[in-house]
Write a structure and sequence with these properties.
Layout lengths: L1 E2 L5 E2 L12 H5 L3 H4 L8 E4 L12 E4 L15 E2 L2 E2 L11 H7 L24 H15 L5 E4 L3 H10 L9 H12 L9 E5 L2 H9 L5 E6 L3 E3 L4 E3 L6 H6 L2 H6 L11 H7 L5 E4 L1 H4 E4 L14 E4 L2 H7 L3 E7 L14 H10 L4 E4 L2 H15 L3
Protein name: glycerophosphodiester phosphodiesterase
EC number: 3.1.4.46
GO biological process, one term: lipid metabolic process
Length: 377
Amino acid sequence: MHMTRDCQLVARHNAWLADNTNVADVAKTNAEVAKRKRTTPGVWVNVKYPAKPENGPARYLSDQLDPSDPKSVLKALVVDGEDHTNDWSISDFTMQELREWIGGKILDNASERPTEWNGRLPVISAQDVIDIAITKSRELKRTISVYAETKNPYWNNQQAIANGCGKPGTSPFEDAVMNLLEKNRINDPKSPIYIQSFDPASLKYLRKAGMRATAVQLIDGNDINYRDGSMIYITNDEWTFISGRPYSWTLAGDARTFGEMLTPKGLAEISTYADGIGPWKPQVIAHSVVPYKDGAGLKDVNQLEDTRLIRNAHREGLLVHSFTFRNEPGRLAGIYKGDPVAEYLEYYRLGIDGVFTDFTGTAVQARKAYDKELGAW
C-alpha cells in the first residue's frame, strides 16, 4: 500500500509509476499527467553510522531538498535511497485520478507474461481489495484473506505530511492503516488479513497504536554468495539502503543489516512486535554452486542446504512466509531443472507456513503433491 495525494491508501507495489503502469503513454495526450513528472534530482546525505567499507556507501540519495520545508519532498522522486528522477510519483495523484487516468501493466518478467491487459485494468484502493475479498468469500463460501504491505513507510509519511494528510512528526500512513482495519472490523488476530513491512519501525508503530491483526516482518537481502550460499547485504551502491537494511535503520545511524533479523536475538526481538517473518527464499534454503566457478549464478546452483530458519522462527512462535515463487525457468535454481513444483516441495517439506507466489495454481498443485506424500490424499 501507498498513500495518494488525497490521503487514501492505494493498492500498488511501487511508489513510482513508469515501469508498472501506462502513465508514460497517458502523458502523451494528458497535459496534466505530463507536467507531474518529477524531474528535480535528489540530494546526497552522509550516513550517521561509521563510514566504513563493511557498512556500505558513505552517503545516500534523499528527497529532503530543504529539511526546513516539509513540502520540499514533493519535488524529487527518491524513495528510501532509490533514485527515480524523471518518473511519476503515486503521491502526486488523487485516488480518483489514478482510477480515471492510469492503468496497470505487467512488471516482473514482462517479456514472458501475457500483456493483453496492460493499461486496461484500473489502479484500485486498499478498500477495494478488502471489498473484493469479502464479496468473493461470500460467493465462493470460503475465506479469502488479504495480505497487505506498508510500503516505504518513511517516504509515505513524509509525502503524506507534505500533502496535508498529517502534521510534521506524525505517521499519517500507519494511522490510515489503523483506520482501514477498524473501519472494516478486521483489527483482530483471527481476522483474514496480514499486515507486512520490511521496516520494523512501521510495525512497531502499528502495534503501539493498537493493531491486533497479524503482523509479518519482511526480511530482504541483495544477493547470494554462490560459493557458500551465504547472503550478501552490503554492496557498493544504493542497494545497500534499499535491500540491505531497513531504511529507518539508515536514518537512525544503525549500521546493522537485515541479516541481524535472522539471528536468534533478532528473531526474539521480532516476536515482540510481529507474529511472523517473510524472508527471501535463499534465507530459508541456502543456494550454492559446488565446486564454484567464476561467474556462476542461480542457473548453476547444484546444492541446497536448510538454514534452519524455519525451525528457529517456530521456536519463537513466528510464522514463516517466504517470497517470491515464480514459474519462469530463469527464476529457478538450476537444481530444480525448470520444474517450479520441485522448488515448492523443498520448502513445504521443511515446514514453511506459507509462500508468496505469482502463480497460485502451481503453489496449490505442489501442495496437493505434498499432501499426497504425507498420505493426506
